[in-house]
Amino acid sequence: MMLESPSPFDRIQSNWQRTVEKVADACMRSNREMGSVTIVGVTKYVDAVLTKHLYDAGCCDLGESRPQNIWSKAPALPDAQWHLIGHLQRNKVKRTLPLVELIHSVDSLRLLEQIAIDAESLSKRTRLLIEVNVTQDASKTGASPDEAMAILDRGLALPHLEIVGVMAMASLQGTSDQARAEFASVRVLRDQLAERNQHPLPVLSMGMSGDFVEAIAEGATLIRLGSCLFEGLLT
Ligand SMILES: *Cc1c(COP(=O)(O)O)cnc(C)c1O
User: Fold this and answer.
1) Can you give the pLDDT at residue 5?
2) Cα dihedral sign, 172-173-176-180
3) Residue 223: per-residue pLDDT
4) CA 87 – ligand 1 centroid, Å
5) Closest residue by CA, ligand 1 atom 11
6) pLDDT, tens only, 61-84
7) CB 86 less than 6 A from any atom of ligand 1
8) What residues in the chain have per-residue pLDDT under 70?
9) How far is the CA of 206 from the centre of ligand 1 (A)?
10) Which of 99, 105, 93, 103 minimizes the C-alpha distance to 77?
């Protein structure tokens, strides 16, 4: 007799539950409340059906790296909180703003100014993170610390915009220790930006499937998890 293989929904549900347990465990080991870390389920690898399965399994914050995928998926899941985690072109800002809870990837003054213009015309209060690159790795996206300072200075003067924190990625090929050191320097940069401007920046978006434990240890409040939630379903 053949055993029936689990349905895609069952698979996603068990991935989700296992991941929530790992996050809870990482929080406990870092002396943090589970409620201080939110999992953003990154659905860029999957279609609308598997995206909905993840939402139905309990993941209410969903992230996409391409704005077009938010345009196509968000109308079917209007109660999900959508996060844009990848590059945003200025000509896509206006269509994206009404659909998203948070934009993680503000990495230039030019993009910031465009978001301000479109937020104004839509009268939409818009929450943003500054994407920072603390590794001096030219191939990586993100603002340098100096650029981040300039973006924050300007952002504080613009109506409708609310800069609430920073986002970063660790070097992809790095060791666990290296990831942890990089996340620590993101936190330090966040603290310096907040202190200098006397403006709280409570949100730290850092950590992916391979390094969220290190990110939680260094204070991440949003972790962006994709592949570990779709294990067994990606080819
Ligand atoms: C794809 C992606 C993730 C998720 O990565 P996984 O390793 O699949 O968890 C997180 N953040 C960003 C910016 C991404 O593009």
Assistant:
1) 81
2) negative
3) 98
4) 13
5) 224
6) 999 999 999 999 999 999 999 999
7) yes
8) 1-3, 136-139
9) 10
10) 99
Ligand 1 pocket residue status of 210, Cβ below 6 Å: yes
User: 61 vs 16, 164, 185, 187, 227, CA distance in Å?
Assistant: 13, 17, 26, 22, 15
Task: Give 42 Cα–ligand 1 centroid separation in angstroms.
Answer: 6
Q: Which of 178, 193, 185 is nearest to 134 (CA)?
A: 185
Q: Are 34 and 27 in contact (CB under 8 A)?
A: yes
Question: What is the distance in A from the centroid of ligand 1 to the CA of 120?
Answer: 30
Per-residue pLDDT, 204 = 98
